[in-house]
Amino acid sequence: MVQNNTIVIIPAYEPPRAFIEYVNELTGLGFQEIVVVNDGSGEKYAEVFGALEKIERCTVLSYAENHGKGYALRHAFSYCKERYDENYAFVTADCDGQHLVHDVVRVAEEALKTPRDLVLGSRDFSLDHVPARSRTGNITTRKLYKFFYGLKLDDTQTGLRAFSYSLLDELLKIKGDRFEYEMDMLIVLHRKRYTIREIPITTIYEEKPDDVEKVSHYKTFRDAPRVAFVLFKNAFWYLLSAIGSGVIEITAFFLLARLALGWNFASVALTMAIPTVASRVLSSVFNFFFNFKVVFHGKQKRSVFRYYTLWTVQLGISYGIACLLNTWVATFGASVAVTAALITLFKYLCDLVISIASYGVQRSWVFADPKEKRLHFYGFFLRFCRFFFNIFVRKYECKLETPEKPTVYLCRHLHTHGPIKIYQSLHFDVHSYVLKNFFTFKSCFKQFGGYTFTVKHKKKGLGLVFAKIGAFFASLVVAPLVRSTKAIPVYRGGNDSIKTYRKTMEYLDKGESIMIYPDVDYTASADTASDIYTGFLFLDKLYYNKHKEHLDFVVVRLDTKNKAIVESGRARFSENADFRAEMPQVAKQLQDLLMQETNV
Predict the structure, then answer these.
(1) What does the DSSP 8-state code read for residue 40?
(2) Tens of pLDDT along 143-184?
(3) How many CA atoms lie within 13 A of 52 on its CB side?
(4) Residue-range domain boundaries for the chain
(5) pTM given for the model
(6) 467 and 453 in contact (C-beta within 8 Å)?
């Protein structure tokens, strides 16, 4: 039993009496030890902690003054480091009843499977019963965390976390005594290349009457600035680097611009080129080393090449701005010194904006660790296209829960509307079924040029020529894009179809999920759903033979009215039924779910 190798750590400040029963439930599940930290709760709560001390395998660590959650966690980590070894995993939970005991067990199991990972119990903040304040706070912090540190997490504030003994040393080094400690944990471990994973847990938020004990001790005016400081510290160092580089550049630019303007070059472009290039070269040396060592903790020597590639692009933009400013300021007829000062002032403000905008590029490309980049599920081409697509096209809200086990999803194709919205908006990764014709340029062009762009639209004469040209350029994009999605090639009919099953089972065996667009006619509109091909149902038989467990077939619906991806329903083979006898029933159930209103 996995609980025998797991210690549960719970920092507790002024806990409710219900906390006693919660600890009793945990000990009843067979955990090695429950370590409760009395974070200076005072005499009023002595009875609660006294009752906890009487529970078998429950240890209470106490100190007189309240220091905060971060301090309490480190206090427990020190205790555990001396008492246990690398054979154990540790789970931190809260004392306010937000973490169900079966969720504690689940995150512990995941931590034991992957010793170098930090496992987070992730709550779903899109649920109706979540208070608006909590939902807004979590959405804000997770978006800021992703922007500053490049990792997408659904719940950055969860207190349910699990990890192995090997992480204790790292966690003991992290500073912060209160709620900011948990945010810094995510920052530090991600920066040091530890994997941070999430598994969904039950989301509990209960409105309590006035006469019921309130447990949360988060103080907005005390704790929010602490968390914000930790969250923004990388941005602070980056801004400091930008300001320092700017001071160097602005000083050099002013001196050189004044000198260049005095030389009376006939060309404005040449006049501005000398101070722009020279000043930026000087500032770039400082900026690179500061960002490499302090801001992004670079590891690779090739960061120099990438940095100066980005630097060249920024230089071109800065140079163009300087020329425009010189032309504009010259209309005032000011002296050389005043002209140089005005150009320098406005140029510095523009360069500061450019520098801030380049933060994401430096974080995700210039100073990125190649090992970290290989962890991407989808390829670079898809991520690149999706980034620019998201700028101009609104994403849908994905209301699907992240699957805990391999799942087969089904969605209407709808003239490619289905695949586009899935890849743009789905918050977890899937392998999609794609016809084999679209994986190479040659076969893609044959499909587009021989049918989709020509025969299908009845093109003739000059229209046929333009259709062939369109098919050529479309094939240049579609084929690499499909490969970048890590799609599964579909061979309809013939012996080659076994390749589709083999590739699918390879991914399902790894715990990854599949997305299928099962319309026989992909061009069917929302209100004229076609029949579905049912060959994919044999996946269940293959999976069951190997894992003794049936797959979930989940139908996904695109709700364009509310801009959301929602679940229409799911089907599953029964445990002991004959597969071939039950297959038509499951197929009919899925067909009916797919026929539901799509709002497209």
Answers:
(1) S
(2) 888 888 878 888 888 989 999 998 999 999 998 888 889 988
(3) 28
(4) 2-218, 231-366, 393-438+487-594
(5) 0.57
(6) yes
